[in-house]
Amino acid sequence: MELATTFLKNAPKNLEIITRENPLYQYARVISNTRFGKMPFCIAYCAEVAHVQYCINYCRDYKFPFRIRSGGHQHEGMCSANNVIIIDLSKINQIEPIWEDEEKTAFLEAWIPAGKQLGQVYDELDDYGKTIPGGGCQSVNVGGLTQGGGWGTSVRKFGLTCDSVLAIEMVLANGEFVTVTKKSHPELFWAVRGSGGGNFGVVIRFKFKLASILPVTTNFSVSWEDPEKIKGVITQWATLHATQGGIDTNLSATCTMIKVRVKNSEVTQKNNTDEYTYEVHGRMAGKFYGSKNALKDLLLNYFGKWLKGKIDDDTFTEIPENYSDTTSKSNQNESTANYAASQRTLIDKINPRIAAGYLKDQHDSCKKLDLTVLPNSGPSSTCDQPHPHKISSSFPKDDVNHEVLVTAIYEYLYKSCYYADANMYMSFHCMGGKVTENAGTNAFGY
Fold this sequence. Notes:
Shape: globular
Number of helices: 14
Helix content: 25-40%
Distance between the termini: 42 Å
Number of strands: 16
Radius of gyration: 24 Å
Strand order of the largest sheet: 5-6-10-8-9
Largest sheet: 5 strands, antiparallel
Structural class: alpha+beta
């Protein structure tokens, strides 16, 4: 406790520190996964490099435990712990474009802070027709996303988020502030990109090579309820991605299976009471760097026999070259949107959604289990506001039988319990393309 007092007493005057006595503490300590209700000693909201250096030097010299937090999205709660100093980077959040002209009209690179939220990055870069190959959740911050590799909806076109990093500003364990590049610190540059956050220092900013979102990109979303179609589509999707040259690198798509409750209208009408069935539904959604017509042709080529009656204008959202002019018009066609807005809509399609309402009549296999915790319904996805969740990830082996794997996952979900306040789903994410081309150039382990 005496050491902790010393930390507070000697801290820079402009470093905001939230301790347990502060009314904001209960808010400040929360991370995305509220399964981990950790009670840190304090949260230090660093607004400049000197603040980070003070925290690191103090914790090193006095052997005081600490955690680094960009945005608190870490699924297993590693950005927090009991009785630690949390070095929070969310106040270092200004994007700095590297302008190509004196008039400041164009740039191809930019410094983006670790504490900047991804949704804000999309919004600000969108004004210039630029983006980074970011993640699926708008609420994640750039620091954790990039150091973990960074999967997103442009992954096959541009690679992982970390593949676009050109330089890194960071504070090392000895308190030194350095700019890390492939030439200046080759091993550190390799390691920071994809190894996981906080292992080699505190990243302040990344210098990104930006991607152009023009002349046109197109998002799409298709859903199925029929079990054989769901299994057929996802098996074909997986097989295509496992085959070299099997799917266009301009297309990045995600498939999802989710356990749902569906009102049985015939039984409900007959008995005059709400009756439900419990099913597994599926969907596929993604982003294509090209036109709506070109994407339509691709999808019909890849998944034609499952798309009968499924494709219409509502399937696609095209972001045209002149989107920045047209989106301000009141009569803007709903099938077009700017890139940042369309990204939010796409993620809503990719992330699972559960039906609202409290489940009273449970699946036969679940009647003896009463696990309902929340009064109404659970959050829609891990991209929502903080809530308790559990996520795990697996990479299939090269010689896996995709049909057997997909069928086994479907059957597992079908036989599982359904609860209105629990979201049970399986997401299938694609890689390949630029990810494969960049293999070995970063520390991403898969």
